[in-house]
Amino acid sequence: MRSVIVLLAFVLGAVIGRAQETQVAFDNDGTIFALTQTLNEQYGVITGFDGFVEARLFQRGTDSTYLLELVILRDGKRERSTQILSQQDIELIRRKLAAAAAPPTVSLDQSGRTSLLWGSTLWSLLYYGTATSIALNIDNSSVPILLAGGLGYLVPALITSNLPVTDGAASLALGGMFQGTLHGWALAALTGGQTPFDNDTPRLGLGLSVITGVAESVVGYVVATETHMSEGRAGVINTTSFYGLLSGVLVTAAVFDQVQPSSDVAARSLGGMALAGAAAGVVVGNLLADAQYYSPGDATMYGISGLLGAALPVVVMAAIQPDNMSATATSLLCLGGTVGGLWAGSELVKGKDYPSSDGTVSIISLLGGGAIGLGLSQALDMAPEWSALMSYAGALGGFCVSLALARPEEPTRSTSWLDLDVDVDVNPLGPWTLRRDHQGIQRPDPFLAFKLRL
User: Fold this and answer.
1) pTM value?
2) pLDDT score at 301
3) Which of 32, 139, 239, 333 is the most buried (most CB within 10 A)?
4) How would you classify the pairing of strands 34-36 and 52-60?
5) Concatenated DSSP letters for 121-143?
6) What is the SS3 assignment for 49-98?
7) How large is the average pLDDT for residues 94-123?
8) Could you give the C-alpha distances from 68 to 21, 34, 56, 65, 99, in angstroms and in order?
9) Residue 193 has what DSSP assignment?
10) Phi/psi at 52 (5° precision)
11) Is 260 helix (H, G, I), strand (E, B) or coil?
12) Is the pLDDT of residue 418 over 50?
């Protein structure tokens, strides 16, 4: 009888002890009661067990500990294992589950914020402060210049502290900050005729340039941010818009056979054509960016090519007939050179994907080559017109060297409006580089090569 009582006591104690273990959820929301293999692989809660199948969690009523019940598959058989966990262990598991289940946080892309603040500060100090001082007829010009410089940093810094500022947004905003001033002067010429140019204090042009510059920088930032514009696309739009404005000025100069406007009609035509050209440049820039991908370095190469194309007729005409330069002929040739240079630039970068560092090196090489050419012309005591041609030749050579040294990314597939694809390869070191052809004969590489694919 005593043995029966002892056996019943043991059984009753086991039942009571088991009843004090209550199953609880793994997570804080009380939704995950069984941690399956799939969930465990997703959240990575339990590690170090081969053949994990399932886990359940029980809270022990006697103390603040927990019982982790594991089911493990070994040699084709399921085995049950238990572990005692503390309250700290459970809190760690629940924090891990909460972090894994939380929606991913998207950090603000402010990669272009530094360049935007640098640009706005410098432009405010160098132009906007002085322009505001003259436009408002302030005697002590140092006050608005210093205020504009400080506000040019502080206002954008405060506004963009919790806003995304991508490289594309910074590029388009800074483009608007610069080109907006030109558009303001063009608007002043369109509305005021010769007045903004004849006055000793051209307050109308300066005032409008400040307003349009600030407005276009804000619009540029908003548009680029809302459309998720890349830096390369913004650079192409900025560049093409600038050359569009230049083309409008060249057309006006060609029509009136003079560079400086001498009448209200010429001045208004200059302003209207410049604004129309800038607007057309924005449209064309978007079409170019739709037709092929432009990296930041591509946009820089494209702009340099346009500059070289625009300057070529000027330096050639100045060298050939410096005393009898026709404004009409020079303007038309310069217009053709601009269009040709931009086309050559777009073909030059097609499928190349130059990084921004290559674009920076090209600018430095352009300036360095131009300085070398100018220095040589001064050493040879050349006439000013021939000095300009030598400087241009040096700049062109520097640009070609930078192309030869550039390291573009993996080629991308470019699209085009036509099924005609032209690749332009410039290799200044080619004539001095020998390479065996398919017949085993050593030949120099070409300086300039074109590949046409239909």
Assistant:
1) 0.68
2) 94
3) 239
4) antiparallel
5) HHHIIIIIHHHHHHHTT-S-THH
6) CCCEEEEEEEEECCCCCEEEEEEEEECCEEEEEEEEECHHHHHHHHHHHH
7) 80
8) 11, 11, 6, 10, 21
9) T
10) -60, 135
11) coil
12) no
